[in-house]
Amino acid sequence: MDEFQEILQDFLVEAFELVEKLDEDLVELESTPEDLELLNGIFRVAHTVKGASSFLNFDILTHLTHHMEDVLNRARHGELKITPDVMDVILESVDLMKALLEKIRDTSSDDGIDVSACVARLDKITGGDGEVQAPVTSVPVEEVIHEEVVEEASDEEEIDYDSMSPEEVEAEIERLLQERQEEDRKKREAKIAAGEKVPTMPDEPSEDEVVATPKETPIATPAVHVENKVNQEKAKASAPARKTPASVEQTIRVDVKRLDHLMNLIGELVLAKNRLIKINDDVEERYEGEEFLEELNQVVSIVSLVTTDLQIAVMKTRMLPVGKVFNKFPRMIRDLSRELNKKIDLVISGEDTELDKSIVEEIGDPLVHIIRNSCDHGIETPEERTAKGKPELGTITLKAYNEGNQIVIQIDDDGKGLDAQMLKNKSLEKGLITEKEADQMSEKEAFTLIFKPGFSTAAAVTNVSGRGVGMDVVKTNIEKLNGIIDIDSEVGKGTSMKLKIPLTLAIIQALLVGVQEEHYAIPLASVLETVRISKDEIYTVEGKSVMRLRDDVLSLVHIGDIFEVERILDANDFAYVVVLGLGTSKLGLIVDTLVGQEEIVIKSLGDYLKGIEGIAGATIRGDGGVTLIVDVVALMNMAREVKASALIDTESGTSVSKEKTKASDYVVMIVDDSKTDRMIMRKALEPLGVTLVEASDGQEALNTLKAGDYNFDAMLIDIEMPRMDGYSLASEIKKYNRYKNLPLIAVTSRTSKSDRMRGVESGMVEYITKPYSADYLSSVVQRNVNFKSEFL
Amino acid sequence: MSDKLKQIINKQTQQQDSVVEQLDDVVQLVGFIIGEEEYAIPILSIQEIIKPFSWTRVPQVPAYVLGVFNLRGSVIPLIDLRVKFGLTPKKQNEDTRFIVMRDGDDVAGFVIDRLTMAIRIKKENIGAAPDTVNSDDTIIEGVGKQSDRIITILKVNKLLKRDF
After folding, report:
1. Are A437 and A512 in contact (CB under 8 A)?
2. What is the mean pLDDT of residues B130-150?
3. A609–B61: do the CB atoms touch at under 8 Å?
4. Which of A58, A380, A458, B28 could lock A110 by a disulfide, CB 3.0 to 4.6 Å apart?
């Protein structure tokens, strides 16, 4: 049965693709009924589905498509005119066909859907005798046949030529092939004559591969010609179903999982590349001027270049044209305009604009809602329009285009537009807003009222829209994609909606901010601006922090209050405010530092940690660390509940000062890059009996301090050290609340006054110049750690 | 499918079953220490055991969830079993390890104090969890009796299940 399943899968994928295109073509056909090529294309779809379904024993589907084919065939030969009524029946049958295909996908069988009514109507159009025969479906028999059919049919395709004997079919194929080869040859000759290079065709193309193999695209066009000829010559007995694609696409289908996996692997590669670059820098520093460095440099830059390209290339494989979603709208508009008795024209542009697959999938529903709304509430009836002096035919424009890192999908209609006052009244009536709010609302803010849950402006509820759901769902869905909606409208002129959506969900631009020792990434799409403020610019109003930003009052919240960040570092006099904007609401997020803008790859936190409020996911940074991504929507909600504590509570350093009971309870850190110097200090202090810990540079000292294994009572710090010098070390240490009172003693050979000044500035309490006597050092240390004399 | 083929396949699956049965008698575990106790989990549910490295704190989670860390490109939660088992947190030292456990699609890293050894234990030597903890939401799979000690065997799927 597996083989059957495989064929079935292929059939379904192909059929769904064809049907999707069919909708679009049919609507187009209605406006240009004479377009023979279009008709042929549509006919071929019906025909392909019919052929394949009969091959797979789906009797009902075959039955339906057979009758569709009849109608279309007549139209193709000019025996039937495509009127809207005819089109209705055809579209109905396409819908049925879709339903059948879905049924087959879900249950592997096509019974349970009644097609006889539709078939009867189709027959009526063809002017047939009206004899409607529901196909006899016998499920048990079907089951048995499947396997046999597969075996038999794979080598002979007689099923499609039910009236011909195998020999005749062979002869027919032979003839067609020759005919086409002839044509090709002529074309080639013509081209050669014209001085062009033409790829040579294999001498004996096997009948199955000729059309389907992508590498032979050059002959694709002639193939179609032949096909048309075939169809015209023998409309009743038709060409094999599997040979009918109108044009050969150079594509293969790949499971999305594989692409995701590839993307993950590349993510790892990027990390490795980043580390490689870092190591290269270190090596460069260490072996300056060595010859091999040049070579290493080159390799590293090639690797990093290729990795970046690879990353982009794989990302592109996930991109789909947005036209995939737009396709279904012409049909929808057609149905809606007939249902609503309005005349509406849909103009689509930019359907080639590409978006990440996951976004393309998500964006369909919101667009349906918006377009329905435009048809129902936006565009007026032809009478109203004429009365207003507008053309009877209303126009909805759907376009997509790139704008920076975003893609914009714009939906414009030339309908009656939104009336801000009416919207306000309506919301007041429904209790969605208060009168005070309504008064303060700008026109633009009033437009966003339509996104409030429970809002509906249509006086009469139609079955198209107006149930009060929809637009708020649209908003949530778009926000889920990190997108924003922008509405503009003018009464009597029309409404314009812009959906701004990031190109891909997987990679976004983010602003990295720091709070204490942690970093967070904020999607740049929601960042309006950043400002540096001093503490006294923050006011407290009703328990909330606010600040003045130009003419507005901006409410503030500290990121540390939202994410429960422990305050280890001493608060600065300055802070940065990241102004977040979502639609019309704004919020100032106070952070300690701004790290910069970076392109980040979004990773999910997994099942275990999903749904943490305020966190949208995580990303992996160049150094291999994980940084959390802020969920701006949730954060804005959380901000309402957080009490203001911003920047004020700088608790005095809670240095743990335990009672010293013996000399070794005192811990002193010696920081010096020279081993000899460390030894000299050690020798000077050992007689005291205090515990000594050594570090060979500032970085190491800081790490030892932060590790918290010891409670240091004093630090002896050399000034000149690799990696981090004494001044930087001192100022780093002084950033921490708990080390505020830790005595830092500079021990250095720098004697100038300016050096001493710098030492004091960075927080050193004593300044000992080398050389010094052991007794002097010892006494300075004793003084600073409050050494109890009884231990001596 | 021809009957012969079916017969052959049936035979093969029967043989495989018997092999599995033999293996089923012995359970392979990896033992580790948390606090004073020795625990063990099935070796097959371990993805890897790694030395500790830095992680990122995640807000609004219980104290035993230390945060997330980067395991070759995937972001994985890190859980301190000491804290989860009600012990005081301890500074990580040389013996500390992260055990990355997997159950289907669920993956998480667990901080343990020290590894002991890989243990082969006969199924008959594994007793049920003590009655007092024998409810549905216990994370104890059973108690393995060795000659010199007993080992608590943990349920990996329970460990990997979010309970907050």
Report:
1. no
2. 74
3. yes
4. A58
Q: What is the pLDDT of residue A465?
A: 47
Percent of residues in chain A assigned helix, strand, coil, to nearest 5: 50, 20, 30
Report pLDDT for A468. 46
Residue A408: both structure tokens together:
């914009």
Residue B27: inside a domain: no
User: Domain spanning A663-791: which superfamily?
Assistant: Response regulator (3.40.50.2300)
Any domain includes B75: yes
- Mutation target to probe the A interface, by most A beta carbons within 10 A, among B5, B55, B56 is B56
- Please tell me the total count of domains within chain B: 1
- Inspect the interface and report whether the beta carbons of B58 and A614 lie closer than 8 Å: no
Chain B residues whose CB is inside 8 A of the A709 CB are 91
What DSSP character marks residue A33? T
Determine contact: B9 vs chain A, CB below 8 A. Answer: no
pLDDT at A239: 40
The answer for residues whose C-beta is within 8 angstroms of residue A322's C-beta and 6 or more apart is A350, A351, A352, A353, A354, A355, A360, A363, A400, A407, A409
Q: Which of B1, B9, B68, B163 is the best mutation test for A, with the most CBs of A within 10 A?
A: B68
CATH superfamily of A2-243: HPT domain (1.20.120.160)
Contacts of residue A702, Cβ cutoff 8 Å, sequence gap at least 6 = A724, A729, A732, A733
Residue B59 and residue A562: Cβ atoms within 8 Å?
yes
- Is the domain A321-502 a CATH 3.30.565.10 member? yes
B56:A615 CB<8 A = no
pLDDT reported for residue B99: 92
Domain A507-641 adopts which CATH fold?
A: OB fold (Dihydrolipoamide Acetyltransferase, E2P) (2.40.50)
- Write down the pLDDT at residue A220: 39
How confident is the model over B81-113, as pLDDT tens digits?
Answer: 888 888 888 888 888 899 999 888 889 999 999
Shortest alpha-carbon distance between residue A610 and chain B (Å) = 10
Q: Which residue of B has its CA nearest to A266?
A: B73
The residue annotated as part of the active site, out of A40, A57, A67, A69, is A69
Write out the two tokens for A205.
């193309």
Residue numbers of chain A with a pLDDT score lower than 50? 129-159, 196-245, 459-461, 465-468, 646-657
Find the catalytic residue in A373, A477, A482, A737: A373
Cβ B70–A625 below 8 Å, yes or no? yes
| pTM of this structure | 0.53
- Per-residue b or e along B65-93, where b marks 16 or more CB atoms closer than 10 Å to that residue's CB: bbbbbbbebbbbbbbbbbbbeeeeeeebe
